[in-house]
Amino acid sequence: xxxxxxxxxxxVLLSSCSEKKSTKNLEITGYIKGLKKGTLYxxxxxxxxxxxxxxxxxxxxxxxxxxxxxxxxxxLYLFIDRGVTNSLxxxxxxxxxKGKINIETTLDFFTxxxxxxxxxxxxxxxxxxxxxxxxxxxxxxLIKKKVQALNAGNTAELDRIDELQKDVVKSKYLYTTNxxxxxxxxxxxxxxxxxxxxxxxxxxxxTIQKCMTPKVSKSLYGKKLNQYIAExxxxxx
Length: 237
Hints:
The protein is 50% helix and 25% strand. By secondary structure, the chain is an alpha+beta fold. α3 (155-182) runs antiparallel to α4 and α4 crosses α7. The longest helix has 33 residues, at 120-152.
């Protein structure tokens, strides 16, 4: 009996020693239905170019895992290399933050079917994109009507559509400004500001900057926004 207990204790100790705890602050897991073989890349933007920061080989198992360190919440990209059958549907943007993030999708509709969990910034970003897509759809509809008016030589209609398009842009910019102010304690706020309304009137950028919490202001995108606003102010002097 004593030998049995000692043996069990030894096995437990060996098992605990063999389980290495990750020292990384970000764990990305996922599942791609239909993918049996291929290569995945975790990418980030560096100097306006996407660069790979991790490579994952898929061979039989559709699940994947990646571990890394990030200093601040950041928009990363999951890229799939389809080889000779490559397509435009091959990159999933996701707002990474410290902790565990899970990405599930399908091989056939890699981007469209993606479901990302574990990131509050991602959750807020999806909420933002859902609303902004309405402005995009409205603008596309106006572009179609503009082409029709142009072909018909209807200048009055062209002028009317131009004004409607300006209204769409104003609405989008106003919504983005309000979104950034209302979510001042999340890094998604400076991100959407830089990505979507960087050319807005400086007074609105100042408002967003003043609303950011100290934590967000010191984040990757908070610092970039602060730097960008400083540069805008110099140009206006």
